[in-house]
Amino acid sequence: MAATCGTGSADWFSTGTLHQPYEKVFDTTRELLEKSHRFRIETADRQSGEIVTQWKVTLSPHWREGKRDRVEVEILRDPGGTIQVRIRTPREFNDNGRNPMIEREADWTSEGGNNELSERIGLQLRMRLKGLKLDD
Predict the structure, then answer these.
(1) pLDDT category, 79, cuts 50, 70, 90?
(2) pTM as predicted
(3) Which of 13, 47, 90, 135 is a good FRET partner for 65, with 20 to 30 A between their CA atoms?
């Protein structure tokens, strides 16, 4: 997967082993991102198992308080037929202090990752696929 988070680093969150059909995992992941978290999908490649959203922007009139997040997903097939989903959420802040509410003038700078959002998406995905039984 191409790096999209600039010089900062976003941590990967893993769902752990899932015993579900690949197509179901892919479709459920995409649906969760689009419908529950209201991200627009930029790319979704079933063959490689990669899903990348567009940036979701939240502007602020205050310098460095405007943020944008995107979600990057890798759906990995293990040799035994099980699946793991890895999720990371790069985050950037707007470093434009002169016009922080004008998106086209934003000066986006990496802030690392929104690890809380990655974990929330991962746990919600696990619950949708496995129900409340979270142990393997």
Answers:
(1) confident
(2) 0.86
(3) 13
